[in-house]
Amino acid sequence: MIAMNLVPIHNDVDAMNLMNFVGENRMVCVYVEHEKISPSPKSHNSDVPMEDFPTVDEPLKFVGEKKDNIDLNEPVHEGGSGQNDVLDDKDNNQSDDEQSIESRIEIFKMQKKEPNTPPPPLPVHWVETSDSVSHHFQYDPDGQLSVKLLDDARPASRRMVESFLNKFFPSGYPYSVSEGYLTYTQFRALQHFSSATLSVLSTQSLLFAAGLRPTPAQATAVSWGMAVVAARATRLPIYSSFAKEGNLSDLFAKGEAISTLFNVLGIGAGIQLASTVCSSTQGKLVVGPLLSLVHIYCVREEMRATPVNTLNPQRTALIVAEYLKSGRISSPADLRYQEDLLFPGRVIEEAGSVKVGRPLHKVVKPSELDKVKEKFAEERFILNRGKKWTDMILERNATGEDALRGWLVAAYAAEIEKSFRKPSENALLEAYERMNNMFSPFISELQAKGWHTDRFLDGTGCRFAL
Predict the structure, then answer these.
(1) 300 and 348 share a domain?
(2) Residue 67 pLDDT
(3) What DSSP character marks residue 312?
């Protein structure tokens, strides 16, 4: 688009401004307006001959219409008919000439070119090659990153495995999850497969017992509806123990996707078994117990593979026992295969043989309660040593740190009694002093290992409030 404007030049300042205005992106056309030729002011009467016309000596040709046969290079002489002809011509065509000149001025107005628009920036893109796979990365104008596969030289089997991992495992696997996630996922998939298969067979048997004759598809529909009702929120604490870098939502979504996939596969296997091997009662009696055993074994291995980082009585006892034995604090991953899932309440002698959560009236006589509490008046636990074990009862608002403090006192007291044959009262006091001296570095290292000490999961154990 061309912008035009007419700027009059009256003096030298205007001329300098014009020179400063001219540049490589601006074009200027200068029009010179001539002084009008008019009669001398001495004569105002048309009857009187006009005199004193100026002589015009202009080196430029007159810019006008082609009908104006006037050459300004020729001097104009005073008097004569030629002078009258020029004046008559000039008077008659004055208005036409002014219009023509104005139109010429409009054509040769000062022109300004639009500055050249710089070309758009080239898109940022690059190619990455990793493990026989080449990808092209490019940032779109809206800021989004687009990825395009250029070359993939991997074997077909490996591509299938990695595609499965990308769809059903969290982003960044295996570095985005805690140790043991693959083992947990394998047993969990097998558990869902066996559970879904067993649910089809058991539902069919239940409907048979009710006097119905359901088809495998009908039994599947009923069992699927029951599975949908089952809550999934109970698995959230398990996912949180594997999560890293705030990826709990991604972990939960991918884990539930795997569960759904193997549920569907298990239902398909259940339909096939219900139509063939398990179409009779004898077949169900054989296959049903086997699937139940597989289901229980998978659940056990899932729990063993999960690095739970909250404290409960058994995990606390294992931590204390390992610390007294070697001076080392175990991490959640170290203890996951040491827990006894069948008998979680067993007493561990190496950790002081502590029992947690027994009713207060069974541990301490009412007449001795104040005396027992005064031993550790500033603590939120009560210890009472017996012949076979030490009872520990926590206050209602006690945390994991309080449970650890009491457990360490009981363990040190048992060790002192066994080594130096001291009475239990003196052993407890000496153990309490030893615990206070080492507890700060102990709890710091424990938390650095990944343990959560803000709560203590003692299940249905009793607590007190005074």
Answers:
(1) no
(2) 45
(3) -
Largest CA distance in the chain: 156
Q: Which residues contact 341 (CB under 8 A, 6 or more apart)?
A: 300, 303, 304
Question: 110: which strand partners?
Answer: 5
Q: Say how far apart CA 201 and CA 222 lie, in whole Å.
A: 11
Element (H, E) at 310: strand 310-311
DSSP category for residue 59: S
Q: Which residues pair with 20 in a beta bridge?
A: none
283 in the same domain as 268: yes
Q: What values do phi and psi take at 202, rounded to 5?
A: -70, -35
Query: So what's the pLDDT on residue 188?
Result: 93
| 38 and 129 fall within a common domain | no
- Residue 168, domain member (yes or no): no
Same domain membership, residue 202 and residue 253: yes
- Give strand pairing partners of 133: 130, 152
Q: Are 138 and 127 in contact (CB under 8 A)?
A: no
**Per-residue pLDDT tens digits for 180-204:** 899 999 999 999 999 989 888 888 7
Residues 212-225 have a mean pLDDT of: 60
DSSP per position, 355-405: EE---HHHHS-GGGHHHHHHHTTTSSEEEEE-SS-EEEEEETT--HHHHHH
From the number of C-beta atoms within 10 Å of its C-beta (0-12, 13-18, 19+), residue 370 rates as: exposed
Q: Per the domain annotation, does 269 fall within a domain?
A: yes
Residue 129, Cα to own-chain centre: how many angstroms?
A: 25
Q: Which two tokens stand for residue 70?
A: 């006037």
- Return the structure tokens found at 347: 């007493």
Domain that holds residue 142: 119-149
Q: Residue 55: pLDDT above 70?
A: no
pLDDT in tens, 292-338: 999 999 998 998 888 888 899 999 999 999 999 999 998 888 888 88
pLDDT at 151 over 70: yes
Higher-confidence residue of 437 and 337: namely 437
The residue to which tokens 């309440």 are assigned: 345
Other CB atoms within a 10 A radius of the CB of residue 120 amount to 7
Q: How far apart are CA 258 and CA 250, in angstroms?
A: 13
Say what the pLDDT of residue 407 is: 94
